[in-house]
Structures are given as structure tokens and as C-alpha cells.
Design goal:
single chain; alpha+beta; five-stranded antiparallel β-sheet; four-stranded antiparallel β-sheet; 22% strand
Length: 504
């Protein structure tokens, strides 16, 4: 008996010694991890923050960064699910005054995305828009919708129906036409008191990249130029201007400005499917753009779906077209919880396959995954669209045919006319069909292309998590002296502006 008691004492002493060796920071960190697993996010953030302070005192900078990144991960999840049930009920009551309360409660129970945070249900920040997008029996009555859509559809018609006076007919030898030159301006103006007093602030500003349809890229000016650390990149897969700013040297407000020009062409490809060409399956291009990675994950279920959609079609152009129309006609447009998907490591292609809805980025990633799964190189291209007059972050797809190059396919813009028809009865079935038909193998010139695919690593790489890994549509930042990464990112976005103006 004494021997057993002695052995138990040794075990306790061993555990106590290990705990002491590990340090209080490690103990706090493990508790934080467990709290996060249980959905106790407030407690987890508190513990991560305490662990961070302990690690800072002992000079364990890697562990400090891990704690900061963990809090950022939780903050991003909470940003996507920001409404408690009382707030949801209040907003539904305000927007749907004439809808019975029991119907609104049914929506809350069955139709609004939610997760459990700290033991309580929290609902999607985009729930109002998504109710409108996903369900035909739900419509937010906005008196401004009709006039707004009328103006937007007039712009869209000029794209999908060439004006008679243009005398334009699509030609095999002329896939690029109708160039539009744009002036872009990044402006960042952050008050001094919103920045840490010390440390190095790294900024990656998105720039236009050179593509077949986007040319004549010119960087006009970057100020303050002394912060630029590498030449601006415009001829790679991701357009970037990189700055390093020693915050101790910033005497007043931080003011950065970048101006650039680029010319974007409309694309109109006339494709003979029988002349698509043969893939070199050993080429770097083929291997890269038929692989499963990042947010373009190919599961057995996604491949099975692609084979079902293709229906035995072996021609890559015809199969890609079937995939395009499947998404356009069957995948409902819906705003996505991109931040929480990124934070939890759920691929966009898997999420949309499992849920049956998605926004432009998610639809484009799904198109790419479906194409790749059956051997068609595809990518998710992103930046901004200005189709309806103002710049808006956007993604679309491109698939590759050896004899034609990269062919555009924009599933979400193809759905616009049908969505507008909910408030504009004058939009005809022919208009809806023309919109869907145009955005396969054709694309308007009102685009600003920043990245040729999603999930492209920054140059130089960031060691902190960036705001949204899949998309560089706003400046990315890193600042080790910012205790709360998310708060610093939001500060940057609050004082940032992008303006894109057509010059012709």
C-alpha cells in the first residue's frame, strides 16, 4: 500500500514539475485551446490574451504570434455571425411588418445560418440579404429597388446586346475588342492615434496584373516612395505594391497613395469545340490548374457531381459549358461567411457543394473544382467589376483550351438579369437567356484583375494571418506590435479607399 501511495506521489510530482517547466503561458494556452474547442469564445480570447502577455514577458515571440493569430481566428468567426436572436427578431419585424410572427420565427429556425457561441445561437451577419436571395417566397420591399435596377439593367443591356450602330459582329480572329482605360487610386489616411507607437507596419496594395485582356499597366506614382521595398509586381499571378513603414518615423497621420493606369478589353471568343486542342498533361500549367488545393479542393463527391453534369461529354469546351449552366441555373447566389470559412479551414468548393448556394467567389471556386476534377484546367480570377457603374469586389472563372487560351465564365453575373426580374417585370425571358449566354466565353471590359487565381501567396510572404487569404482585394497588412490583429485590419479598412474611373 505504501508503495502504491509513493508511486502516486511520484506521478503527481512529475506532472507538477512538467507544468512548472512548461510555464504559466503554456498552461493558459492549453486552457484557451480547450475553451475554443467547446465554443466558449469569450473565455478562449481572454485566456489567449493572458497567455500572450506571459509569452511576451519570457520573450517567446513565436508563441506570442500564435496567441494573436488564435484571437484573430475567433474574431473572424464572430464577425460572420454577429447577431443574437433578439436582434434578428427586431430586424425581421422592421423589414417584414406584414409577415406573421410565426412565419418570421420559422425563418429563424429553418432558414438563417447560425452557430453556437458561448452557449448561445448567433446568426449570419448577411441573413437579410440571403433570405432575399435564396427563397422565392421572401422579398424585401425596397421602394428604391425598381429605379436602381432599371439603371443597372440599362448598363447590362449595353453589354449583352451590342448597340446596332456599332456594326459589330464577333470574329474568330478578334477575341479582344472595345478597350477601356481606367485610372485607379488607392488612398490610405490613418490618424496617428489609431496606430501602434512603435513597430513595423507592412502593407501589400493590390495592383492590376497583365493578362490577355488586361494590358498597358502603368504605375503612375506611389507615395511616400521611401516606404516601397520591392518593385511593384504586375507581371506575375498577383499584382502587388509592397511597403514597410517604421511607425516610430511616422510623425503625423499615415498617408499613402498609389495611382495606376490599365486598359481592359472586352472578350468575345468564338470556339469550335472540335478544335479545342490537346492538353499536354505533363505541362506545369496542366498540373497546376487541375490540382486540388487551397479553396479549390476536389473531393470524390465533387468529381462524381462533375461526371454527372458532364453526362459522358469528353470534349473540354462542351463539358465546361455544361458545368457553367449547371451552376447558373441551380446554385443560388448567397453571401458567404468567407472569414469564418478561412479561419476554420473549410474550403469554399466544399462548402458550396454541401450547401447548394454561394456568392461570386464561391461559385467560381466550385466551377474550377468541378472542371479540374474531370481534367479541364480552370482557375478563379479576381479583382473588381464595374459593370453596373461602381467598383465592387468580384471573382469569376476561367478555363483553359490549348488552341484558345484562357476562356472567361462568370456564373454569378450571368444570374443578374434573372435576379433583377423580381422587381422589373419588363425583363423578358430572352433578356435572362441573353445574360446567361453572354457570360460564357465572353466578358465585358469593366474589370480590374488583381489575381489570376485564389490562394496566391503574398510577396514577400506574411507571417501573420491576413484579412482574407483567398482574396487580395484590399490592402493586406502585418504589424507585430498590434496586439489585436483584427482590430488593426478593421482600422486599416475604415481609413482606406479605392477609386476606379474609366477615362474613355
Amino acid at each position: 500500500m505504501k508503495k502504491i501511495i509513493f508511486l502516486m506521489f511520484l506521478m503527481f510530482l512529475s506532472q507538477f514539475t512538467l507544468s512548472a517547466l512548461a510555464g504559466n503561458g503554456d498552461v493558459l494556452y492549453e486552457k484557451a485551446v480547450e475553451a475554443e474547442k467547446n465554443g466558449s469564445y469569450t473565455e478562449a480570447c481572454r485566456l489567449y490574451d493572458e497567455a500572450r502577455k506571459e509569452f511576451a514577458e519570457t520573450g517567446e515571440t513565436t508563441k506570442v504570434d500564435t496567441c494573436r493569430a488564435s484571437v484573430d481566428r475567433i474574431n473572424k468567426i464572430c464577425m460572420d455571425y454577429g447577431y443574437a436572436e433578439d436582434k434578428v427578431k427586431e430586424m425581421l419585424s422592421e423589414k417584414f411588418k406584414n409577415t406573421p410572427e410565426e412565419v418570421r420565427n420559422f425563418w429563424i429556425k429553418e432558414r438563417i445560418d447560425n452557430i453556437i457561441i458561448d452557449g448561445t445561437k448567433y446568426y449570419s451577419t448577411h441573413f437579410l440579404e440571403n433570405l432575399n436571395y435564396r427563397y422565392k417566397d421572401i422579398k424585401i420591399d425596397d421602394p428604391n429597388d425598381y429605379e436602381k435596377n432599371k439603371k443597372s439593367f440599362a448598363k447590362l443591356k449595353n453589354i449583352i446586346y451590342p448597340t446596332p450602330e456599332s456594326n459589330y459582329s464577333r470574329q474568330l480572329w478578334q477575341p479582344y475588342r472595345n478597350p477601356v482605360t481606367f485610372l485607379g487610386t488607392h488612398t490610405l489616411d490613418i490618424p496617428k492615434d489609431k496606430l501602434p507607437g512603435t513597430g513595423l507596419l507592412k502593407l501589400w496594395f493590390p495592383l492590376p496584373v497583365l493578362t490577355g485582356a488586361q494590358r498597358d499597366v502603368k504605375i503612375i506614382s506611389i507615395t511616400p516612395e521611401e516606404y516601397v521595398k520591392i518593385p511593384p509586381q504586375i507581371d506575375s499571378d498577383l499584382g502587388l505594391a509592397f511597403m514597410e513603414i517604421p511607425l516610430e518615423k511616422v510623425k503625423g497621420d499615415l498617408k499613402c497613395k498609389i495611382q495606376f493606369l490599365f486598359t481592359r478589353y472586352e472578350q468575345n471568343f468564338i470556339i469550335d469545340p472540335d478544335n479545342a486542342g490537346e492538353y499536354d498533361r505533363e505541362s506545369p500549367l496542366y498540373k497546376q490548374y487541375t490540382s486540388s488545393r487551397g479553396n479549390t479542393i476536389i473531393t470524390p463527391e465533387i468529381k462524381e457531381k462533375a461526371l454527372e453534369i458532364a453526362g459522358g461529354e469528353k470534349n473540354p469546351c462542351k463539358a465546361a459549358k455544361k458545368i457553367y449552366y449547371y451552376i447558373v441555373n441551380n446554385i443560388k447566389y448567397s453571401l458567404m461567411p468567407h472569414l469564418s470559412l478561412d479561419a476554420t479551414g473549410i474550403a469554399e468548393s466544399i462548402y458550396i457543394h454541401n450547401h447548394g448556394y454561394g456568392d461570386c467567389g464561391t461559385q467560381a471556386a466550385y466551377f474550377s473544382a468541378l472542371c479540374r476534377s474531370i481534367g479541364i484546367p480552370a482557375r478563379t480570377t479576381g479583382g473588381y467589376q464595374m459593370i453596373l457603374g461602381t467598383e465592387s469586389p468580384h471573382f469569376w472563372s476561367e478555363f483553359y483550351l490549348p488552341n484558345y487560351g484562357w476562356i472567361p465564365a462568370d456564373t454569378s453575373v450571368a444570374q443578374i438579369a434573372e435576379e433583377m426580374s423580381k422587381t422589373m417585370p419588363e425583363i423578358t425571358d430572352n433578356d435572362i437567356k441573353a445574360c446567361k449566354d453572354y457570360f460564357f466565353a465572353s466578358q465585358d471590359p469593366y474589370r480590374f484583375v488583381i489575381q489570376k487565381d485564389i490562394d496566391i501567396t503574398l510577396t514577400p510572404p506574411a507571417s501573420d494571418p491576413i484579412f482574407l487569404k483567398m482574396a487580395i482585394q484590399f490592402p493586406a497588412m502585418e504589424c507585430k506590435t498590434a496586439e489585436n490583429i483584427t482590430a488593426m485590419e478593421i482600422t486599416l479598412l475604415n481609413y482606406y479607399k479605392l477609386e476606379i474611373k474609366p477615362l474613355n
